Amino acid sequence: MLKLGGDDEVIFFSEADYEGVRLPHDDPVVVTLQVKLFTMKRILIDSGSSTDILYKHAFDQLRIPADQLRSVKTPLVGFAGEMVHPLGSIDLSVVAGTAPCQTKV
Predict the structure, then answer these.
(1) Helices (H), the chain
(2) Which domain of life is it from (predicted)?
(3) In 3-state terms, what secondary structure has residue 102?
(4) Quick one: which of 15, 23, 22, 43 has its CA closest to 31?
(5) Nearest alpha carbon to residue 36 among 89, 100, 101, 91
(6) Pairing of strands 38-45, 76-77
């Protein structure tokens, strides 16, 4: 199950999606989504994360200027305990799926 936001915006994976997968498995789910007007590939789904992170390189490729980011005062803490200060925060539209089974957040 991939929840994109809101109570009715959930994508469920069926048995057909497991074709070729040896069960049980603990592999990460990696998807391709349309973000703004661009297709982003190799998006890792982490259901335990409390934040969604894009690196500056992704913002550069999406042509999002830094002045569109909202200021963020709280640093993030990495896996090794290092503190990272985000450049900012932004809400982006995301389209998942193909018509007619498609959702936009």
Answers:
(1) 56-61
(2) Eukaryota
(3) strand
(4) 43
(5) 91
(6) unpaired
d(CA 105, CA 4): 7
CB 13, CB 101: distance < 8 Å = no
pLDDT of residue 76: 86
On whether the CB atoms of residues 66 and 56 are closer than 8 A, the answer is no
- Nearest residue to 84 (alpha-carbon basis) of 56, 103, 58: 56
Cβ–Cβ under 8 Å, residues 96 and 4:
yes
CA angle 11, 46, 66 (to 5 degrees): 100
32-87 residue pLDDT tens? 777 777 777 777 666 666 667 778 888 888 888 889 999 988 888 877 889 988 88
Spatial separation of the C-alpha atoms in residues 29 and 48, rounded to whole Å: 12
Output the pLDDT for position 3. 47
pTM listed for this prediction: 0.53
